[in-house]
Amino acid sequence: MNEMQVIEIHYWAAARAAAGTRAEEVPVEGPITLADLRRLLAERHGPRLADVLMVCSVLLGDRPVRSQDPGEVVVEPGTTVEFLPPFAGG
Fold it and tell me: What's this model's pTM, rounded to 2 decimal places?
């Protein structure tokens, strides 16, 4: 029987507003893809967050995900994931 572990999620700007929280811990049984993590977060918080997450830059720890396929990006338990929406300004 696997012990439940967590992924720490941090939301910024519009993602924070859509999630209704600044941060949360998501219980997982093991590694999960970024695509599955986004789906799980959308199920928790609704379609508005799902839309925002699709345009967010993502950091896994201090490593940017960039243009990698979210279905191939593996998020390990214990990782901090940050969702950063595009910011206006210049």
Answer: 0.91
